[in-house]
């Protein structure tokens, strides 16, 4: 029953993940047709949305097959290949997200270190190449699983078919290395970017407040939206990282077969990340709200659910003549 509940909840999250990421993909294509080019951030976001959708579809297909084939009668090789692709796509998602945060930190924060600035420029000049190399590196990192892991065909209660498990110390070392490469390293990069952006924000606000002598509230405009998006991405990533490492610890150390739970939490992460990305891109957010309101116009009874498309301007009190 636990597996069925997780399967149902993951299915609901899969719908939202696919919807939001396909929306990002279509909006990116529409912007490209208008501008005839992609900015580095749009390239990374497009790659991230494709990886999210592919990961979600393969995850849910694997979970569905595991529910249908409860006796594990089907050959275990298809399960093994799907798990390999899932782990590879998870690697891609983690590094694409950290790469996007790194990009925003380079745009928001100026560093006096000339050598570090040159490295940043070299990376950002080859964004498309980097985005293409990340999935290949993910696949290459996961290929040793076929050698150091054993594919078990477990049919006991609450167990799954074709699970890849380490068979010896080499397998355990590889599993730890995989988690470091796919989870911890991108997390460290994102935390570093988070500190850089937060420090930049604090300094910028202090300078703006000093320039206005505290008479007016400092405003950052569209820059503040990007900062909120970048910091939200980091916060969501760190929360997911803690949960993912704990679940993997339970699988590796306590040998609990809860792979479906990792897919469920990853589905939550990809859904929330897509929503944060849409909010961060003002054109995406405004278009989504507009389409949502247009759909509600077809049903007058749902008029109360409409979202205002423009912020209400603060009313200034009229002066009273004495």
In words, what does this structure look like?
It is a single chain. With 322 residues, the chain is mainly α. The protein has a single domain, classed as Rhodopsin 7-helix transmembrane proteins (Rhopdopsin 7-helix transmembrane proteins, Up-down Bundle). It contains 10 helices and 2 strands, in the order ααααααββαααα. The chain has helices at 2-35, 40-68, 76-108, 114-125, 127-142, 145-148, 169-211, 222-252, 259-280, 282-297; strands spanning 149-153, 161-166. The chain has a two-stranded antiparallel ribbon with strand order 1-2. It is globular. The model is unreliable at 315-322 (pLDDT under 50). InterPro entries: TAS2R.
Q: What topology does this entry show?
A:
Layout: H1 2-35, H2 40-68, H3 76-108, H4 114-125, H5 127-142, H6 145-148, E1 149-153, E2 161-166, H7 169-211, H8 222-252, H9 259-280, H10 282-297
Antiparallel strand pairs: 1-2
Helix pairs in contact: 1-2, 1-9, 2-3, 2-5, 2-9, 3-5, 3-7, 3-8, 7-8, 8-9
């Amino acid at each position: 029953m636990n597996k069925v509940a997780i399967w149902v909840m993951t299915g609901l999250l899969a719908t939202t993940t696919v919807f939001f990421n396909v929306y990002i993909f279509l909006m990116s294509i529409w912007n490209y047709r208008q501008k005839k080019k992609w900015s580095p951030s749009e390239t990374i976001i497009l790659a991230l949305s494709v990886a999210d959708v592919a990961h979600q579809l393969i995850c849910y297909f694997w979970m569905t097959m595991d529910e249908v084939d409860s006796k594990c009668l089907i050959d275990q090789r298809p399960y093994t290949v799907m798990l390999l692709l899932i782990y590879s796509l998870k690697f891609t998602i983690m590094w694409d997200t950290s790469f996007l945060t790194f990009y925003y930190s380079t745009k928001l924060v100026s560093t006096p270190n000339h050598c570090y600035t040159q490295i940043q420029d070299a990376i950002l000049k080859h964004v498309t190449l980097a985005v293409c190399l990340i999935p290949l590196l993910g696949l290459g990192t996961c290929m040793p699983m076929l050698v150091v892991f054993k594919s078990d065909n477990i049919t006991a209660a609450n167990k799954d078919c074709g699970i890849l498990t380490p068979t010896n110390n080499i397998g355990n070392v590889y599993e730890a290395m995989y988690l470091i490469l796919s989870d911890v390293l991108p997390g460290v990069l994102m935390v570093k970017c988070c500190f850089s952006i937060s420090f930049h924000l604090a300094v910028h606000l202090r300078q703006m407040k000093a320039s206005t002598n505290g008479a007016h509230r400092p405003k950052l405009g569209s820059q503040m939206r990007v900062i909120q998006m970048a910091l939200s991405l980091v916060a969501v990533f760190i929360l997911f990282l803690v949960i993912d490492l704990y679940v993997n610890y339970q699988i590796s150390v306590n040998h609990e077969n809860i792979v479906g739970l990792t897919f469920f939490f990853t589905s939550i992460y990809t859904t929330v990340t897509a929503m944060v990305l849409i909010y961060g891109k003002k054109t995406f957010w405004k278009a989504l709200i507009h389409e949502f309101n247009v759909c509600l116009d077809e049903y007058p009874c749902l008029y109360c659910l409409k979202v205002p498309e423009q912020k209400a301007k603060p009313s200034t009190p009229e002066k009273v003549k004495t």
